[in-house]
Amino acid sequence: MNADQFIENDGSEFNSYEEVRLKLYFANEAGDALIATTRTKEYNTNIAVEKLIIEELIKGPNAEGVYPTINPDTKVASVAVKDGVCYVNLDESFLIQPNNVTPEVTIYSIANSLIEMNNVNKVQISVNGDTSILYREKYSLTTYFERNLDMMASTN
């Protein structure tokens, strides 16, 4: 090896941080509709923004009048985007819903939040890599979910 085969790093190139503005969808008080919120977050650019979105949804809202949609014990196994589809792999805690929200609200909280990204058109959710699950006895996870604006809470 010689000197020109080494990377010289002053600390600003690896593990750099950027600020991103996220549009996240959380539940209304009744748990049957979505409310859009925005959150500005500084994040490590070595992490995909799509994974950051899922992690922020799991953390829950930081504003009044909106409620969590995903079990806070849920762990993100992986998030990847290929050909406009965002593949979200969560652990089995995702299947346990401690909050009073409908299955539609949980699914479209994830889908609508991710589809805010320019590179995502559809979302597929899996649990421990398995898509053959029927989420809350209603939604097959083999489905590719698209944006659903009908889930938005009315502003009246």
Quick recap of the structure?
This protein has 156 residues and is α+β, with helices and mostly antiparallel strands. The chain has helices at 49-59, 103-115, and strands at 17-27, 34-44, 76-82, 85-90, 122-127, 134-135, 139-140.
Structural class: alpha+beta
How many extended strands? 7
Instruction: Quote the average pLDDT.
Output: 91
Radius of gyration: 17 Å
Low-confidence segments, given as residue ranges, are none
Spell the H/E element sequence. Answer: EEHEEHEEE
**Residue fraction in strands:** 25-35%
Largest sheet composition: 3 strands, mixed
Structure characterization notes:
There is one protein chain. With 156 residues, the chain is of the alpha+beta class. It has one domain (16-149). It contains 2 helices and 7 strands, in the order ββαββαβββ. The protein has helices spanning 49-59, 103-115, and strands at residues 17-27, 34-44, 76-82, 85-90, 122-127, 134-135, 139-140. A 3-stranded mixed β-sheet has the order 3-4-5, covered by helices on one side. A two-stranded antiparallel sheet has the order 1-2. The model has no long low-confidence stretch (mean pLDDT 91).
